[in-house]
Amino acid sequence: MLDAASAAARRTRRAGRADPRLVLVIKPGGDGGLLPAILDAYQAEPGALPVELVCSFGEREILLREGRADAALLHRPHPDLTGLDTQDLLTETQLLVMPSSHRLAGRTRVCLNDLAGEPLPRWPGATEGGSHKPEIHDLGQLLHLIALRRMVAVLPSSIRDQLRDDLVAVPVDDAEPTTLVLAWPEHATSPALAAFVRAAAAVAGKATGHGG
Question: Which residue in 134, 182, 127, 175 sits closest to 155, CA to CA?
């Protein structure tokens, strides 16, 4: 309860600034390619505020719950969405990203069992005792380490458009699909936030063929 009250107070202080803005926390490269269109659509909404983007790999949910952000782009099924309202934007299959010289690079498809023994990324906040792999903090770092043959990664299929020439990606047949989710605190009353949610839902609907 104290944490919730502190977060509410922090949001109130931010809303009272002389230059109010909407703070959106995102994972670099983790917007499914939708964010540019969402930002454009939102700016066309009456009363739209400037959007401040905060990039974070492992603290998006924390920043949102602490009241340091108004909304976040998260990926289900991983985060705990308790106490948050959400809007599903995009569901994607997943790909194995690896160096072009990798033993699986010539395959057209793989399954999770094919990755036994492969070094995988260590994400911020993960509890992997004894792991000496570097913690991943941004997409450029991740792709560089993959190119150096230090690890492979299972990532949403939209990552394909951001791959370097020395990397390849193949579908992982039995990897659980991942859903890009726009999340914000329950009971939020900000008209600017409501407009952002509407804009995001409309853009996602058009992109997936479910728009009106």
Answer: 175
CA 198 and chain centroid, separation = 19
What stretches of 59-144 adopt beta strand conformation (E)?
71-76, 84-92, 94-99
Q: How far apart are CA 165 and CA 61, in angstroms?
A: 32
Q: What is the pLDDT of residues 131-187, one digit of tens each?
A: 567 788 889 999 999 999 999 999 999 999 999 999 999 999 999 999 999 999 998
- 43 Cβ contact list (under 8 Å, min separation 6): none
Are both 2-91+177-208 and 94-171 of the same fold?
Answer: yes
> 10 Å Cβ neighbour count for 145?
18
Any idea what the Cα angle at residue 33 is, between residues 32 and 37, rounded to 5°? 125
Does the 94-171 domain belong in CATH 3.40.190.10? yes
Q: What is the CATH number of domain 2-91+177-208?
A: 3.40.190.10
Tell me the domain boundaries of the chain: 2-91+177-208, 94-171
Beta-carbon neighbour count of residue 135 at 10 Å? 15
C-beta of residue 97 within 8 angstroms of C-beta of residue 36: no
What does the pLDDT look like over 111-137, one tens digit per residue? Answer: 999 999 999 998 876 655 445 677 888
Query: Under 8 Å CB-to-CB from 14, ≥6 apart: which residues?
Result: 20, 23, 67
Please list the residues that pair with 153 across neighbouring strands: 97
